[in-house]
Structure formats: structure tokens, C-alpha cells
Amino acid sequence: MDVLVEFALRVVSQFQSPTLAFLxxxxxxxxxxxxxxxxxxxxxxAVFMLLMRIGLKGxxxxxxxxxxxxxxxxxxxxxxxxxxxxxxxxxxxxxxxxRRDDAIATAGxxxxxxxxxxxAAMVLLERDGIAYEAWVPALYPxxxxxxLVLAIVLARMHAEKKTKxxxxxxxxxxxxxxxxxxxxxxxxILGLLLGLLxxxxxxxxxxxxxxxRGLLSVLMLIMGMEAWQRLNELRRxxxxxxxxxxxxxxxxxxxxxxxxxxxxxATGISPGGVILLAVLxxxxxxxxxxxxxxxxxxxxxxxxxxxxxxxxGTPIAVGIGIPFFVALAEVVF
Length: 333
Known about the structure:
By secondary structure, the chain is an all-alpha fold. It has helices spanning about 1-15, 20-30, 40-65, 65-90, 100-110, 115-125, 140-165, 170-180, 185-195, 200-230, 230-235, 240-265, 270-280, 290-295, 300-330. It has one domain (about 1-330): Na+/H+ antiporter like fold (Up-down Bundle), CATH 1.20.1530.20.
């Protein structure tokens, strides 16, 4: 009983963090009809800064780390990204009233990664003094790319099967190339390479790191407002999406947490690293995923996968998932 009480108190305490407060504040502002608008240029700059900071930090840590320690977590991240898409294919896609293309796109978005959710988790871990390997956030593309690529390939295979056309083949490389050229992954990979091949410590310490938390709070405020605005879109689609978006982030995160625990036993990865792996799996892409899927699966309804992710999936992952996995780690480790 004491463990359950402590767990509940731990979850409640996470809602008092500034990061989650800005997300909830954005939802409340939009719900009250506020006319507050944050220019898209500021949003794009905040996203760029967030991903560059994550990339630079990860690259610098990879440079100092034993590459052998990263092999197993990287393979696990790839398997989780692809596995989440396949799980959506055998669950959401088989529910009544759900179009297969919409289900595949939704599963692809939930298999991909949210940089904002990852950033929020990093801030909370640092605030609570929970150590983690700085290269763990660099697992982002290892989970993100396989999920998006697999979703697009599956959707195109389904489309070809429906039309019974065999002349045009799906180019997997074109999908991978398009994902890598996207703004989000380009910024992250650039940061990784700069951190790995150069010595950006000074610019990191004086520019990227100090601005990280402030810009993240702006990003969370924007996401809160967008979550409320897209709630109406989700209501116009099958209610199964709301159930999927509410339940599956925690399911995905629990699978990743269990896998991370096994990696902890095998390689000694820290509890903080296990938490971040679970958060990566629980998150759903809010930056790289939507434009990639919109271009790759044009037949899918954006209201279904973007609405499910932004309105329900992200608030669940940030507001419940992060504190849940932090509390679970305190019980397990």
C-alpha cells in the first residue's frame, strides 16, 4: 500500500513541473477562447533549437562513449519503431469503421518520436537529479525513421494491392531519403554530426543549452493550444482513434521499459536511460511525422492521425507517461 501511495504522489508531483504546466496552460487558454497566437516562425525556431541541442549533446556524448554500449539500445529502438507500426496494423486497422490507410498512418505517427515529449522528459530527469546517458536521446532517428518508412511502405503496398497495379514499385530508398531531408531529422542529424566530429562545447554551453528550457516551454504552450483546437477534428472521426491514442502510448512505453530493463541487465544502461527509451516509445511524432506521412500516404485523413496524436497521444505521453515511467523506475530499480 505504501508503494502505491508513494507512486500516486510521485505522479501528482510531476504535474507541478513548469514543462507540464505550460502544456496544460495552452490547453486552458484555447478552451477559454483566447486569441493568443504565436507566430509560426517562432515555433519553427524553437523546434530547431530543441533538436540541435539534443543532437549536439548526443553527438558529444557519443564521441566520448563506448560505441559497443550503444549497439543494443539502437537495435532495440529500431525494433520498437517498426514493432509499434505492426502492432497498430493488427489492432487499430482491424477495428470497425477504420480505414486501413488511416490506421497505418496513425500507427506510423505513434511509432515515430516526439522531440517535444523527449525534451520534456529530459528536463524532468535533470530537475530530479536522475542521471542518464546523454547519447540515449540520440536514439531518436533509430526509432523515428523505421516507423515512418515502414508505415509508408505498408500503405503503398496496400494501395497497389487494391488497384492491382504491378508496374510501379515502392521505392524504399526514396522514402528514407525524404525522411532524412525533412527539417526535423536534418536538424537533429546535423547536431549529431557537429557534436561528434567537432568541438562545439563553447557554443553549446553559452547558446543552445541556456535557451533550451525557455524555448521548450514556448513549444509546450503551442502544443497545448493545438491539442485543444484539434479535439474537434478528432470528434468527427471514429472514436476508436481516441481510445487508441489514450491507451497505446502507455502500452508502447511499457514494452520499451521492459526491453530497456533487459538492456540494463545486459549492458548496465542507467535507469534514466531506460526511462527515456520508454518515453521515446510512448511519444508520437509532432514534427517530422505529420509532413512525412502527409506526403507519403496522401490517401490518409490527417484529421485522424494528427488529431489522435496531438489531442490525446501527446498529452497522455507527457502528462501521464513521463511521471508514470519515472515512478515505475523508482519502484523497479
